[in-house]
Fold each of these.
Amino acid sequence: MLNQAFEALKKFDFGTPLSELQAIEDAVIGAHGDSTLRSDLEARLIAALGTDISRDAKDYVCRKLAVIGSSAAVSALADLMSSEANAHLARHALERIPGPEAAAALATAVTSLNGKLKIGAIASIGARGDAAGVAALASLLQDTDAVVARAAAMSLGSIGGSEAAAALQAAAQSATGGKGFLMDALLSCAESLLRTNKVEAATAIYQSLAGDQPSRLIRLAATRGLLACAAKA
């Protein structure tokens, strides 16, 4: 049955009934807790990505690797990040594969890709919430493309924590233009620190944002954060 499903995958395209791939679906479910089955299934899915299957078939494989993928799948998924047709779901899988290999693939992508593909890779680093991605994002905060710099700040805010906050504060101090997006990201970092009971670190960020800021909304958010810190302290 599984062999037949992988044969059907070779011809799978938009409009093909998913029932033809049911054996793969069942195998993905069955692979939970069965390392041998999982490894074999992952290898077959990775091999499929290297063949001339359709865009929709590759998207399907990426969805399955998002569930059972390991570091073994990273290289094949990374190759798809330069393809506008499949980059989104390749990143979706990389966001969910644990370990430094997937994080490194995304960090490499932000230095080699351009345009929407670069923005997507930046967003995926934030979606992983992995502090290992902070260095790659911090280097983009001064990018001449304002869209890239804003995306990097948003992802640092998603990761949160002291390291991300330090990168954002350094960028804010040296920024010559608008830096409202940096302030927003810093608020997200402060919120993450407060959630993890790092009250002192959160308080320091809120205090830096509660003073002479051009945005009234930022000042109000920082003041509310200081009240929340006081309540926890």
Amino acid sequence: MITNKFLGKCAAICALVFSSSLFAAPIYVGSWDTYNADGPSWSDFTTPTYTGQEVAALLFGGSFSNYAISTVSSDPLAINNMVWLDQIYIGVDLFGESYRVDSNNNGIYDISGDTSAWVRDNGQGGGYINYAFMIEQTPGGTVPAPGTLLLLGIGLAALSLRARFTAR
């Protein structure tokens, strides 16, 4: 006979397993200054344009999709999914981490108002720090869908009710 105590333990174990895979903490891997001495200097038409995530992959390895970028700090709880980008002839400004402008569609930072998270331009000095975080992958590379978790919860609730009414 299934008891409520047994079902409670099963529910607690399932919750721990699923929550640990759903909420794996991002890991801080490093930072770069968009303007200062970190990026290449724009002086001709050969400097590539990069999103913040692409710069993180370039500097720290892996795929750009495995990174979250922040302009706040190296604290994983403060990730704002924003990045400092340099706009040609305009200066450094705040945009989304996957944002860039490549107006000529040639992948090159050029005079058409392009933006990049990895270039020195406009003589604005430093202080535009982007912080990169590796997003942990779950075992097997999959995360249970919310619908799956809902069905699991409904199933456990049904078993609990059944055990409660059959015990009477």
